[in-house]
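Researcher: We're teaching a course module on how sequence relates to structure. For the next exercise, students receive a sequence and then see the predicted structure as tokens, so they can try to spot secondary structure elements on their own. Here is the exercise chain.
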Amino acid sequence: MPSWSRMATRSRVPLGFAFAVAYFWFARPTWTSLCAGAILVVAGIAVRASASGHIRKNAELATTGPYAYSRNPLYLGSILIALGFLVAARNIWIAAGTLAMFVFVYLPVIMAEEKYLRSTFPGYDRYASQVPRLLPRLTAYRSGDGLDAGGQGFSADLYLRHREYNAAVGAFLMMCALILKMTLVRH
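Model: And here is the predicted structure for the students to work with:
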């Protein structure tokens, strides 16, 4: 029988799409909530974009760029995006559903990824002991081996290869849908 983290990993994308439909249905945005939420959404997209341009998945341990501040900047960016959409939605049930998704889907996925990284990259334990899982530290992590003094920098090639632009496109489309809902549907 597959572990919960494996099932969470496999189900997070389909659950995310189903949640997006429910989100749209139950959201009750106003211009104020939409604008306030958009600030967080844009910040989350920027964090995800930066992280995506620094990670060389399965090839090396990312410890530079946003990874020098948080072990999971992609998830941190996703959390900011989610918070932005929660502010825009103004619905307590959406907030409860989002919290449940994070606890029961994303936390197990993060734990499984950490287990993989620990078994794959010998320096992971040292890095993990000095860099927080989600909330960023104030100063950049330095491994001490000289390899991260500036790192390899942001790579637009990696950003495109990881198709991170899909997060921006999806957020833009949902914001447009919320604006349409706000202007066409009276509550």
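Model: If you want an answer key for the exercise: The mean pLDDT is 87. Residues 7 and 105 are 9 Å apart (CA to CA).
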